[in-house]
Structures are given as structure tokens and as C-alpha cells.
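Section 5.1 Outputs to date
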Amino acid sequence: MRYPNSLMTLTQRAARALELALLLAAFAVAIVLIRPHGNFPLNDDWDFALPTWHFARTGQFHFSQFTAVSLRALVLWGAMWTRAFGESFEVLRASTLTLSAATIILVNHILARAGIVRSLRIVTTLAFMFHPIFIWASCTYMTEVPYVFASMLAFLFFYRGISEGRTGFIVAGCAAAFVATFVRETGVEILAAALVVLLIAKPKNRRAAAITIGVALALFAAIFLFRREWLTGSPEELSNHFRMWTEATFRPPEQITVIADYTTWNAQNVALFFLPLSLILLFARRHWSRGETLLAGLIAIPIFIRVNEAVSRGLPMPYFSLTGNFMLGNILTNWGLGPPTLSEVWSRQYDYPFTASMPWRLALTWGSALLAALLVATIVISVARRPTTFTLLATAFAVAGTAGLCASGIYVDRYAWDAAWSVGLLLPFFVPWERRVARAIAIAALVAVAVFDVGSMHEYFSWNRARWTGYRELLARGVPPVAIDGGSEPFNLYEVAGVTQKRRRQLIFAHPPQTYVISFHALPGMRVEREVPFEGWFGRHHGVIYVLRRTVSGTSY
């Protein structure tokens, strides 16, 4: 039932409050089971924590040489939490979890306002909640959740501003888009997407709304021209992301290949990560005409070609390989979530102890390719059949986000969340929810994804706590950080954070072998000094983090 909030009865308000309370309770249970505690960085959030703490102490922005994103809005948010609760990674994680809870509420509110029936609205909200990148990013201080929260707020405001003809909401949407822009500079894509839909929808306030968005775009252009440093922590690092487009050897054939690759991977990841909704699109295709079925087949051809090429090169999902100048995988890198950043695995010389077998990887690869083709075809056909302000806006957000990725010199799977989260808002309009079998499959897939997420994240934090236990024991013994190879995060936090780009490259490529190595494996030429056990998947996996001392000179893992 669709209803404006102002016209809801007391019973309806109570039902909505109960719905949200149960959803947030489910999220809280998942986080309690994951146990995301431990005062240590994860992935790249060391680079966002340090300027946050600096701002909390001094009131000044100060970024490392490796901060490509604009970040300032996130720094202000995290600094408030730091001043209130102290300086630790756990406090910053709590600040992200708060925004995650707000994002869950926002998804549910948007779906309710769009008229999605309660059962489908709940399942869709849970699909967002257990989106693998969302659940991982929620337990870090990365930029993914804050950026999407601000983007989603902008979506809601623009949707209301265009559909209701209210310029005030357009102004609010522009403000939210600017907040997103000062988390990641790609937020400007939101303004462009909204302007395109505004021109197509032609609401009664079109002139005033177009002027408002135009002014916002002009303001962004002025910042880009005269205060470009506001849009990044490090201009040099940001330029590294776009450098390939300025190289003389990067010509149209290479450009087309990159666009095809990035678009394919984004469609594949979106289909996989929104599995409870994308899977039941299999039941929607029976309503297609012969021409629409042919169109779907044509859309599938380039996707299958790109996926087949990756498989032929020995790169089935979960992707985790360097190909050319970009990485295919990052978060979904084994049969779990979270990058295994200890050096012997991160360098691909050894496998993570718990990995998917090749048959499972191939099934995942081709299954996600099929769903990607189905997803793209469904969106194209359904939006073309019956465009509405909501579906046009959600589609425009996803297209603009994906196009923005193509300008970057790297693609990793977590970008599918930043760029195309709005696809999750589109799918409820297209899935055949009236079919009992579709509902049953969606719920079964949702349960499977939730179990996978929670079990994987439980393991991720378990081995990270074991890693940092071993690392800090060495520090307590007086071993300096430069003598310890503790993996990516300790190296970045203790050795890289304050150096230049040139010095970083020297440290990465010419670092002498460290005396101590912390690893998932007992490595040759090293003596085991300490074994720190960890438990994953609530007891199904039992692993060990090894603290090793080098006994012979040799390879630096």
C-alpha cells in the first residue's frame, strides 16, 4: 500500500515502526555474531582514520600522500565520534555501523514511499542489509557506507522533488550530493544523473529544478577549477587513478576493452551481491516478447565473451588476480569475505587456508554471468516498456556510477556497491513477486547469503585479531615495526602513512626481508616462534596465525 507519511493512521505508523525495529534487530544480531571488535585497521581504513584523529586533535585537515578520495565529510563525522568516545578504530567502526543502520532505515522508507508491498519491501531491505560489500564495509571505517548513505539520501530528495514538483527537495538533494562528493569526489555523478531524469520527466517545477541542479554543477566546476585540492587528499594519488587515459599507448581498442571489462564486472558483481532479487528474475523473462528475448540474447553475448576470456586465462570467480593494470577482486577473494592481507597470500604466492574448489568457482562465475545478462536485459526492457520517475532515476544513478568507474585505472569488487547500489531499488519493480516459487527462492537465497556473510565476517575478524595479537607481542618485546612483516595494514600504518609516493615505492619494491613474518602458513627458511589459533565460521574452520623468525636470507613474502 502506498501512502504519504503525513496520512498514515496510528495503526499504520505502529506497523511501520515494528517493521523497522525488527529489521534493525536482525542487523544487530548479525553484528553481534560477527563480533567486529579489535583496535586495528582493516584494508585501507588506516588512511582515513589518521586524518580523522588529526582533525579531532587540531581542527585541521591533514591527509597522507595516498588519499585519493575527498574524504572531508567522513573526517568531520569520525572526528565527532573521536572527541566523544576516544581515539580508536573500534570507535570509528561504531560510527560506520550507525550510518549502516540509518541506511537500512532509508532503504525501507524509500521502498515504502514507492509503493512496494510489505513482504517484498522487507526482503529487499534485507537484501541490502546482507549485501556482502555492505556488511563488510559496515564493520570498517572505509568510505563505502558513508558515501552510499549520502547518495541514497540524495536519491530520495531528488525523487520527491521531481515526482512531487517541489524545488525544496531538489535543493536538499543537491546538498546531499555535495556531502557524498566530500566523501568520494564521484558524488558529482549524482547531480548529472538527476539532471538527465529531470529533463526527461518534465515536472511542473522543471525550470526551477534545472536551475538549482545547474547551480550545484557550476559550484562543483568552480571548486574543481579553483580549489581542486578540496576534492582529494592527495592530487598525485588521484591522478594515478586516471593516468592510463592520458597515456599515448592507451588508444580506442584499449579504451573499449576497459569499458567492456568494467561494465561486465560491475553487472556480474551487482547480480551476485543482490542474489535474493536477481535470482528470481529467471521467472520474469516468460513475459518477454520475441523481440525482447532477442535483445536479451544480444546483451548476453559481450558479457559471456568477457567472462569466457577471464576463465580461459585461469581467472574464475571469486576474482583475485592482477590483469594488466587493474585488480579484478578485493573483498570476495576466497570462499569468504575480507581481503586476506598477510603477505604470502596477498602476494598470491600461497592460497588462503580456506578456499573454494575450482568446480564451485566455475559455477559461481558462469552463474553470475547468466544473472548479469538477465539483470541488464530486464532493466533495459522494463524501463523502456514503462518508464517512471523512480525507475529512471535509479537507472540513471547506476549508469552514471558505472560510467564513472570506467575513468578510473582500477576496478575492484567493492566498487559495485558505490557505483550501482540503486539497482537494488530497481529490482522490486521487476521481480515476479506474485509467484509463490519466486518468493520461496528469494527467501532461501536471502538466508544463504546472510549465513555466508555472517560466517565469513566472523572468520575475518577472528584471524585479524590473531594477526594483531602476534604483531603486538613482537612490539612489546621491543621488535621495531620495520623488522616485522605483518601484512598490508601494519606496513601501511607504521611504515607508509607518513612517507612520500616515491618512498612508498621504494619500501614496496626494495624492502629488505624482515626478521619476523606473520602468516597463514609455516614458511620455508623460517622458525615458528608462536602459533595464535583462530576459529572461523563458528567452529567449522580452525586455523593458525604463525609468528615466524627468519633463519636464512631469502624471499620477502
